[in-house]
Design goal:
The complex is a heterodimer of chains A (about 120) and B (about 210). Chain A has about 120 residues and is mainly α. Chain A folds into two domains: about 15-75; about 75-120, no CATH class. Chain A is built from four helices and no strands. The longest helix of chain A has 23 residues, at about 45-70. By secondary structure, chain B is an all-alpha fold. Classes of the chains: A mainly alpha (about 120), B mainly alpha (about 210). Chains A and B meet through helix 1, helix 2, helix 3 and helix 4 of A and helix 2, helix 3 and helix 6 of B.
Chain lengths: ~120, ~210
């Protein structure tokens, strides 16, 4: 019987980076969190504020995911697996937003007048 | 060729395949849990957004003091605890057991402080009249969604604190290794990551603008 050609496991993610690098990432995450609070007190529409906050939150999450959770140090196939699977599932949940607006604005496809709450 | 000869060095008898993506089984299990839990929190936040969009009388009651200030402090504590967890895992990987245990316990204390601040905020809101079904500012769905989302996150933080203490103590006693601390660290970073979305969407989008 042929034995599969496998090697003993060598962890891809290493924790041997300098502390300075981790502290820089930490400060960046805190700075982005601060930006969130600044955005909250700017005079923007709800949609614009939400979009900016989402962008900043994704940046923060990306730093934490890649450097604190060491996803950056894993094999590329694993990184793609995590990001694509998670991203697909979350994006698949976004189908109902037009329905939420219909309850208040009566669009799209509603039989009631705009602005009516059913 | 016997079963023993077919196993990988250091792996149980009968293991014929390498770990997927060279990620050990324990770590892969935690990543899969994190993906599933991310989907859970995403679903809860999407549902909250749906309710908010569809409610004509959604309140925005959070004042700068004490709510937003408290959220700032909680964010700082949680992000810092993520850093201390990282330092603990780094020390564990380097074989520095006392330092790894110390950083892990500091992380647990940070999580505990976060939980206490959160409960204090909850009590303040309940004192103002906010409950799961009713509040003095607008639709009752506000309280239901707020307490549900923050409660789910607080549950994760509490479980994380318990796990940090348990795994930390067992690591110090030699029962668990650096890999176990690393896997727990992934969970703690995930809890911090979720908070980065909860704060803007649940707190900051509901700030009271005078």
């Amino acid at each position: 019987m042929d034995i599969p050609d496998v090697q003993p496991h060598e962890p891809a993610a290493r924790y041997a980076d300098s502390i300075t690098k981790y502290i820089v990432i930490y400060v960046c995450i805190l700075a982005l969190a601060g930006v969130q609070f600044v955005i909250a007190y700017t005079h923007l529409s709800g949609t614009a504020m939400f979009a900016r906050m989402l962008f900043v939150a994704l940046a923060e999450a990306g730093l934490a995911l890649m450097f604190f959770m060491h996803l950056w140090g894993e094999k590329r196939g694993f990184v793609l697996f995590v990001l694509i699977l998670t991203g697909f599932v979350i994006m698949a949940m976004q189908y109902g937003w037009t329905d939420s607006y219909r309850m208040e604005l009566g669009v799209p496809y509603s039989q009631s007048k705009p602005g009516a709450v059913q | 060729m016997s079963q023993a000869e077919m196993s990988l060095p250091g792996h149980p008898v009968g293991t014929l395949t390498a770990p997927a993506f060279s990620v050990p089984a324990k770590k892969m299990a935690m990543w899969l849990f994190i993906i599933a839990d991310a989907a859970t929190f995403a679903a809860v936040l999407v549902a909250y957004g749906f309710l908010r969009n569809g409610s004509p009388n959604w309140p925005t009651p959070f004042r700068f003091s004490p709510t937003v200030l408290n959220a700032m402090l909680m964010t700082f504590i949680l992000v810092t605890s993520s850093l201390t967890m990282l330092l603990g895992v780094r020390a564990a990987k380097a074989g520095d057991k006392p330092a790894a245990f110390l950083w892990t316990m500091i992380t647990a204390i940070g999580g505990l402080i976060f939980a206490v601040l959160h409960l204090r905020e909850w009590l303040g809101m309940i004192h103002e009249g906010a409950t799961l079904f009713h509040n003095p500012w607008g639709t009752g769905l506000f309280g239901a969604s707020f307490f549900s989302i923050t409660g789910l996150h607080l549950l994760h933080v509490t479980a994380g604190v318990i796990a940090l203490v348990a795994v930390g103590v067992r690591y110090k006693g030699g029962r668990y290794g650096a890999d176990d601390l690393e896997v727990l660290g992934l969970y703690w970073h995930f809890v911090d990551l979720v908070w980065m979305f909860v704060v803007p969407f649940v707190y900051l989008l509901n700030v009271a603008h005078q």
